[in-house]
């Protein structure tokens, strides 16, 4: 691969190791309480609330495990600032930003060169890993996964990204 920061890997290795490990950790943390602002934002994301929560937790695991995932996202902080001109709450603005960005993601596995693929703009293991992780958590038995299911997962994932880039106001 010629793009900066990308390496070529075998899909099956990614599925067997990285995706499985993250999915297992997410499953272990599903009932863990989250900050009030995050819980409120997750409740505002349309669709499957459990999948949104799984996406949120998946990003938390990425940040813990991958140094690259901790890099700043100034583009996302700017996006969040622009979404709050009228004094909207952090939770409302964050849910809207995450939902809007999730809607730009392609239905199929995103490519690094796809300008619409927000999952490749977020630092960390990349859009392919996130795509397979969304599929795995949405249908652990390998059943069909709808666009709405992937969208809810990605919106939750992006909510965590928003929290990293533009955290809620201190209380």
Structural write-up:
This protein has 171 residues and is mainly α. The chain has one domain (11-165). The protein contains seven helices and no strands. Helix 1 packs across helix 3 (49-65) and helix 6 crosses helix 7. 39% of the residues are buried.
Provide a short characterization of the protein structure.
Helix content is 57%, strand content 0%. The protein is mainly α and 171 residues long.
SSE sequence, one letter per element: HHHHHHH
Give the termini separation: 45 Å
Specify the structural class. mainly alpha
Number of domains: 1
Q: Approximately how much helix is present in the residues? A: 55-70%
Number of E-type strands: 0
**Fraction of residues in β-strands:** under 5%
Low-confidence stretches: none
Number of helices: 7
What's the average pLDDT?
89
Rounded to an integer in angstroms, the radius of gyration calculated over CA atoms is 15 Å
Biggest sheet layout: none
What general outline do the C-alpha atoms trace? Answer: globular
